[in-house]
Structures are given as C-alpha cells and as structure tokens.
Design a protein that fits this description.
Elements lengths: L3 E6 L11 E7 L5 H12 L7 H17 L4 E5 L7 E5 L7 H9 L3 H12 L8 E5 L2 H17 L12 H11 L7 E7 L8 H11 L7
Antiparallel strand pairs: 1-6, 2-5, 2-6, 3-4
Length: 215
C-alpha cells in the first residue's frame, strides 16, 4: 500500500487532505518562562528548601501529568463469604524522586525538557485520540470547530452524557485546559484505506488506549 504521512499543527488543520486515512492527536507539553520563574522563586527562599521537592512534584503534576490523567475506573471487589466493595479509583502520578531533586536543585532543567519535548513528540509519545475518516479534512476541521466553540461557550456544554466520541474528545481537551496551540495531529493517508480504515483504527485504539477517546 502507498501512504502519505503528514504532521499538522493546530493552525494547519485546514490543510488536511480530502482523502481517507487514519489520524492521531498528540499534545506537546511546554513549561513557559513564567512557570519556570515562579517555580524558581518559590523554592529559592532558604526557609522553603525542605519543601522544595514537594513544590516541584506539585509543579510537575499541574503543568504536565494532569493533562494526561486517565478518567477514573469503576471497580467492584468481592470474595467468597467476604464483604463486597465498589466505587471509583483514580489514577495518580508520582514523579521520580531523583528527577524531582534534580529539578529542585536546577530548575533550568525544565528549559532543556522543553527542547526535548519539541523534538521527541509525537514520535516518543502516546496519542490522545485515534480516529479515521474517508474525508480527513472534514473530520479534523470538525474536531477543531467543536473544540473552538466549547472554548467560547459556558461550562454547561462540557457536561452531559450520550456524547459522540468526537464531542467527548473536544470536551476533554477543554476540560483539561489543554492549550490548542500545542496540539498536533499525525495523518496516515491512502486512497487504499477508503472503507477499511475502521479496522486499523479499531486495533490501534486497543493497543494504545488513548486517554481522550477509546473506541
């Protein structure tokens, strides 16, 4: 099969071809200069040195891990002649203690990480969402319009059940506060995927489990 591979930034979505294919959305994290400066100032005071590791861990959760946190799972536990338990469990992130200490002693490492993220994503990251369409241009522009409209609307449009997967993806992007300027989409385009792209999409979703859309 002959494929065309494209990588489009948020501002380039309208350049997607009117052709069949499979696509995956990615997010490139970025620590702003203001973020880094505020962290540096918050841990610079001698009286806060002991708290520096926890401040850095909280910073990483807020500016990185929270974007990628999976939705809670409904669980039920039972055993023979045992009480039954049911409820929700939530994913938690625990930054590596060694990494936390390195950043606490040298916050400039975050600037280096920005450069690494710029070069390594999407090639070294998991997709946020995987989809397919016989008209990639129409589908991706639809994604962009939904996200843009939700960003301009009130919170009521972010709630409710029974949404399509496209609407759910847009809602999660907005709910998590993901900056659209850091969204990008990888396309695998081929006329030979017409009417059959649902098969690789189905398998890729079950291999990768993208956190903002599972089919």
């Amino acid at each position: 099969m002959t494929f065309e591979r494209l990588l489009l930034q948020w501002a380039e979505i309208e350049n997607a071809p009117q052709a069949p294919g499979v696509y995956a959305w990615y997010f490139r994290p970025h620590f702003t200069e203001r973020d880094i400066s505020q962290l540096t100032e918050s841990i610079a005071a001698p009286e806060r040195s002991a708290a520096a590791p926890s401040i850095v861990a909280e910073f990483l959760n807020k500016h990185l891990f929270d974007y990628f946190t999976d939705a809670p799972y409904d669980v039920a536990i039972s055993g023979q002649l045992k009480p039954r338990y049911a409820g929700k469990v939530f994913q938690t992130f625990h930054p590596s203690p060694d990494l936390v200490l390195r950043i606490a002693s040298d916050p400039d490492r975050l600037r280096m990480l920005n450069g690494v993220f710029s070069e390594m994503i999407p090639d070294f990251s998991s997709p946020l969402y995987i989809g397919m369409s016989d008209d990639l241009h129409s589908r991706l522009v639809s994604h962009k319009i939904k996200i843009s409209r939700m960003l301009e609307s009130d919170d009521s449009e972010l709630n409710g059940d029974g949404d399509t997967s496209d609407h759910s993806f847009a809602r999660e992007v907005v709910r998590r506060g993901i900056p659209t300027i850091r969204l990008q989409v990888r396309l695998l385009v081929s006329e030979q995927l017409r009417n059959i792209a649902a098969d690789p999409e189905n398998l890729l979703n079950r291999i990768n489990y993208p956190i903002l859309g599972k089919n």
